[in-house]
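User: structure tokens for this one?
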Amino acid sequence: MKKLFKKLFGWIPSGIWCLAIVILLFGYLGSRMGTANMLNTIMNTAHDLLLNTVFYLMAICVITGALGRILVDFGVVKLLEKLLRPLMKPIFNLPGVASLGAVMTFLSDNPAIISLAQDARFASYFRKYQYISLTNFGTAFGMGLLVIVFMVGQGFYWEPFVGLFGAICGCVVSTRLMQRSVIKYYPEYRDQVASVSADEFPDEEVNKDKKPMFQRILDALLDGGRTGVDVGLAIIPGVLIISTLVMMLTFGPSATGAYTGSAYEGTELLPTLAGKCNFIFEWLFGFQDPHLVAFPITALGAVGAALSLVPNFLEAGWIDGNAIAVFTAIGMCWSGYLSTHTAMLDTLGYRDLTPKAIGAHTIGGLVAAFVAHWLFVLISIL
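Assistant:
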């Protein structure tokens, strides 16, 4: 199919395709909303998201960043890694040290797994097919603490942990599918070691810091908070660009039925399309409103942008406990993998396997949401 498309349309310059898509998108929005209203809505929505959503998310990033740094500096992460290590091989078909990657990405973001994977001592524990699957494994836990804390902050206390279990199930599926794909196309990777280093991965960190306890705590809090600020700044483009576009395709006109140029007005294109096959989303994910499909679509590119949709969904009355569980599962498992998988695999040196990784992770995220929904249903019945 790809070759046929290239043969038929490959002669058209990429610039023409770009212009066609831009004209089609904004032509559609402008024809429905009016050009002036469309531009005003774009600016007002982005401004409101910046003030009322981005800064809230940044505050959470600072707090969770400080907490994460405390857990790292005082050995809690190492303790968790030792407790989780026995589960890695039977569940994920990964060496025990991979649990450290899960904890680190849960406390921070997807790329944390790459900084570990580039350590030769760490990589020496993995066969090549396992090593490549770290991209899928780490992504499924990316920004997990931020997602859970955000959902709890919205007034849902046990539903996010149902979503956490769903994300773990999705991670198992994604990681093992990726391993099978790698072995299928590169059978020699089954036995090849990812690194030739013979150094042992240290079981204990030697703390040579002789600072007073109070100073260590203060430094950890401030350094972790500073990292949180960096994460908060990094999510601004995704929230303002992706969320603004998705909201304009999700919400409808003002209460009077007319377009006024106010924030959060739109054409309701996504709910209309989702409504055509809503029975699928209702059975798989328990979505009672077609507007909710905007969250998983946004999470494909950036989970921070997807989280920015939740307050508006709550205000509109579209969200229940099931939706929060599903959002947590699919938000954690996908966590913007379309925007990170390519860079992560390129860093590891296996760019050609990016389509396999994306395909496996797409399935893993759907499984995560499916498990979270039906587990929520089971708990509700009990």
